[in-house]
Amino acid sequence: MADMDEIKEAKLFYTDRPQETEGFFIKGSNSLDWGIKNRLARIFNPQSGRTVMLAIDHGYFQGPTTGLERVDINILPLLPFADTLMLTRGILRSVIPPSTSNSIVLRVSGGASILKELSNEDIAVDIEESIRLNACAMAVQVFIGGEYEKQSIINMTRMVDIGNRYGIPTLAVTAVGKDMARDAQYFRLACRICAELGAHYIKTYYIEKNFETVTASCPVPIVMAGGKKIPEPEALTMAYNAVQQGAYGVDIGRNIFQSEAPVAMIQAIRAVVHENETPARAFDLYNTLKREK
Ligand code: R5P
Fold first, then answer.
1. Position in ligand 1 atom list of the atom nearest CA 58
2. pLDDT at 3 > cutoff 70
């Protein structure tokens, strides 16, 4: 206990300086509670307002994906360059060191495999696990137009309700079925439905035409999904266009860990996302880092 004899009359009241109340930097998040904002601020960098999420959760429905066969060998070297890791509790507990400073987005939907109908998912992780694992957000797949559309939407709304109770945000991941049109009209629909039903931020695909209408009509942040592996200059251009057209960052998997030089690629992506580096200069950076290795 502090020594009572030492207590002096307090003087530093700064009566001429009103207390400042800062606005929160993440789109659509100002009315959220402190815990949710704090977790979002560990995903989105408060300086740039954006995030580089590294998605390595593919195994939850497709097993050991190319590049993820050995997460300990292939992925751990990438962690210093990612703001956030998106993964399953299985890989988190078994491979990722608890000393990591990356924020964690935990995959909480699941139950389908590539051998069956992918939209047939349920909630596969209890909220207690997200709390125990110190997750900064929970990721749920939403299949708008899919066979189990309603079930996947309700999975998401359940996590939003439970997450709000404990201060953990929900990331809605818009999944596109094989036969669905990947156009602005579809993504506006999918992202807006997720936001209206309470998702705190949304992962969706980049499209060449009118992507800015998808970000503009979504009242919470959108992060760009990576998709299948494409050549590095194209992936950097896609990430650049997405953030310049209103995305708050990226959530990329294969275009990083399947790159010829994953450590160089994630740094080039960072430059595009956090420093507005052009795709050409980011590709130069990629080549330089690749050579240095
Ligand atoms: C999306 O459906 C899952 O979260 C994927 O496992 C992951 O996000 C895909 O990342 P990418 O398409 O960039 O490899």
1. 6
2. no
How many angstroms separate the alpha carbon of residue 60 from the centre of ligand 1? 10
- How many angstroms is it from 58 CA to the middle of ligand 1? 6
pTM, rounded to two decimals: 0.94
**Predicted confidence (pLDDT) per residue in 202-243, tens digit:** 999 999 999 999 999 999 999 999 999 999 999 999 999 999
Task: For ligand 1, pick from 52, 53, 56, 57 the residue to mutate: most ligand atoms within 8 Å of CB.
Answer: 57
Task: Using the CB atoms, write b or e for 8-42: b if 16+ within 10 Å.
Answer: eeeeeeeeeeeeeeeebbbbebeebeeebbebbbb
Bridge partner list, 278: none
Does residue 25 have a pLDDT over 80?
yes
The CB density around residue 104, as the number of other CB atoms within 10 Å, is 22
Beta carbon of 67 within 6 Å of any ligand 1 atom: no
At 207 the three-state DSSP class reads: coil
